[in-house]
Amino acid sequence: MRERMKRWWTKSGMATLPGIIAVLLIAMAQTVQIPGLSPAIQRVGLLVFDAYQQLSPRPYEDAPVRIVDIDDESIRRYGQWPWPRTDIARLALALGQAGASAIAFDIVFSEEDRTSPHQVAERFRSSDPRAANVLDRLPDNDEQLAAVLGATPSVLGFFLTGEPLQQQAEPKAGLVVLGTPPAAVVHYTDAVMPLPELIEPAAGAGSISIAPDADNVIRRAPLVAFQNDRLLPALSVEALRVAFQSESAQLKTSDGSGEGGEPGNVVSLRVGDIEVPTDGAGEMWMHYTEPEPSRLVPAWKLLSGEIGEAEAQVLFAGRIVFVGASAIGLRDLRATPLNDRELGVMIHAQATEQMILKTFLSRPDWALGLERSLLLVIGLGLVLALPWLGATRGAVLGGVVVAAVVGGSWYAFTELKYLLNPIWPVIGATLGYVLTTVLTYYREERQRAYIHDAFDRYLAPELVARIADDPSSLELGGEEREMTVLFCDVRSFSSISEKFTPQEIIRFLIAFLTPMTDLLLTYRATIDKYIGDAILAFWNAPLDDPDQYENAARASLAMVAKLAELNRDMQQQSAEPWPGEVRIGIGLNAGRCCVGNMGSEQRLSYSLIGDTVNLASRIEGQTKFYGVQIALGSALHDALPQFAMVELDRVRVVGREAPESLYVLIGDEERVADEGFQEFAQAHAAMLTSYRARDWEAAERQRQALEERAGNFGLTKLYGLYRERIADFSANDPGPDWDGVYSSTEK
C-alpha cells in the first residue's frame, strides 16, 4: 500500500518541485481574500453581481407599496419647493382617508414653514402692525401638518451624518437586539431631524441615509444604523412596523440566532411575521426591478382631486405609501446596478417590497469560505491534472472549469438568490493553469529521467518508453471475487428535501448515515460510497470474509431495526431535523465482481463493478414497488437457508434479459423457528404455485386466506399487487406460453 501511495504521489506531480511551487503560490494567493486587502478584486466581484441583476432583474410583483411623486408637473401646478405645509397636510390627509397603512416621507421637515402666517407676519410687524396681528391669529401651517400626522399612520424621515453632534435621534418604538450588540452596523454622530412638533405626533420615524459602495453604487439598503449609542431603524423598516402596527422590531446577531459566526454580526431583522436576512452590518442586499410606472402616482393628481375617493382607495388602501420628489432641482438621485440615476425614495420603496414579498438576495456566511476553498481546490486540481493533459487539453479543461464556476455562480443567483463571487475560483483556475503549464515541461523531463533510471535494467526499452508515456498503466485494475453487495436508499428523499434547508438536510443525513455506517462496519462491510442519501457497501474485499452472506443479512436486519429506533427517538426531540417516519429500501445480491482501484488517471477509487452490482441496485429499486424493506436475489437466498424469507416474484429488471427470483428478508433464525411464519411461508409458496400454474381461482382463494396475516410480515402491498394481477389475468389469461415473469419498469 505504501508503494502504491508513493507511486501516486510521484505520478501526480506533487513530489516534484514544480508541483510544490505551484501549490504554495496558490495557497499564498488564497490568503489575499481576507476582506479589505484586495479592494480591486472585491469591486470586480460587485460588478459581476451588477451584471447578474442587469441580466436577471427581480420580476415586478404588485406588492402593497406605492410612491407619491412630487414631479415636475406637481411643481408647475403648485409652485416651487418647499411647498406650504398645508399642501403636505392635504396630501397626507388624502392618503390617510384612502386607507394607506403607512405614509412614509422621504423628506426631512427640519425647518419651520416660511409660508406660515406667523412667519409672514414678521415681515409686516413694523410696516403694518394690524396686518401682522391678523396673520398671528391664523392657524400655523406646521401645527396643521402636525394634526394630520397625528391622525394618520405617518412616518417621518431624518438624515444621519458624521458631523459633530447637534441633535440626537430617538427611536419611536423599541428595537430589540437578540445577542451581542451589533458591532458592524454603520455609526453616525449627528442627525438632521424634523421639527419636534412634527415628529412628536407621527407614528414612526426612520433614517433615510443610505451609504453607497466605494464606486457610489447602492447595492445594499441599511435596515438599522447607530447614532452614538442609539440603534435606529431605517425608513423602510419603520414604515413596515407602522403598517403592521407592531410595537417593536427585533434584530438578531450571530450568537443570538444560534447559527454561529463572529459575535456582533447581524444575521436578520424581524418586523411582524417578516424576517429579513441581512449581512453583518444589518444591510439587505437589493434586487432591483426594471422601472414600473404603476408604482408611482403624481402628487398633483391627489391634490387636485383628479383621483377620486373610490380610485384613491383602490390605489392606496392597505398599502405603504412613500412620498418623495423627482422634480428637477429636487431629485435625490442615486446610482444602482440597473440605473445610474434612480430616485432615492425608489430604493426605500423597493426595499420594503422585497421585505413584504420575502424575495431576498443573500450572501451566506459560508460564501467566503466556499470561494476560498474553490480557489484552493481548483488550483490544486489543475496542478494535478494539467501535467497529464498538455497545454491544449489543459486549456479546454481550464475553460470548462471557469465556465462551470461562473455558471454555478449564475445558477446560485437566479435559482437560489445567493451571491457567490466567481472571481476568486477563476483566479485559482487561471493561476493553476499558468503555473502548471509553464512548469510541466520541467516536471515531465524529470519524470522521464526517473523512470528510465529505475526500469532500464529490468524491462525492454519499448516497455520503459510505454510506462514513461503512461505511468497510470501501473495503477489501475482489480481482481475478481465472490462478493455480497448492498444498496440502501431513503424513500421519498426528494419530498424530504423540500421540507428542510440545505444545512438541515446535511444534519439529517449525518443523523441517518452515521448509525447505519456503524452497523455495516460492525458486520465487517466495506463502505464503497455515499450517493446522496444512498449507501453502497460490499463484503469479502479487501479482506476475505467467510461469513459474508450471513453478515450482509444480519446487517440489513439491524439497519431496519435501528431505523425504527431512530424514527421513534428522533421525533421526540427537536435538536436535529427528522422528517417524520423515514423508510428505507435495501437491495442485496451475491456473485462474482471485479474489485480494486478503479477510476481515471486523475482520480482512483477502491470500488467494484459487475452484473452482480447492477442487479443489487435494481433489486433495491424493486423494494419500493413491492412495499418491502429488504429484498435479495436468488443466489444470496440459496446461501442463507437459516433466515426467514419468502419469494416475492420472478422479475425481469430494467436493462437485464435474464429473469431473477426476488425474495424478501423477514427475519433471522428466531423468526424461522416461529410456527406462524412456517405456516405462512408454506401457504405463500402454495399461492405462488397456483399463480404460476394459471389456476387463478385457487390463487385468489389462497391469497385471500393469507391477506389478513400479510401485514404481520410487511407484505400488505405485495398482496395488493397479486390481487390486481390475478383479477387481470382472470379476465385476460396470458396463455400457456406465459413464463410467470413480471417485466419491471422500476430502476
What count of structural domains?
4
Count of DSSP E strands? 27
Q: Roughly how much helix do the residues carry, as a percent range?
A: 40-55%
**Radius of gyration, in angstroms, nearest whole number:** 37 Å
What does it look like?
The protein is an alpha/beta fold and about 750 residues long. The chain has four domains: about 1-55 and about 365-475, no CATH class; about 65-355, no CATH class; about 475-640, Nucleotide cyclase, GGDEF domain (Alpha-Beta Plaits, 2-Layer Sandwich); about 670-745, no CATH class. It contains 26 helices and 27 strands. Helix 5 runs parallel beside helix 8 and helix 24 (about 675-690) runs antiparallel to helix 25 (about 695-710). Mean pLDDT is about 85; it is low at about 5-15 and about 455-465.
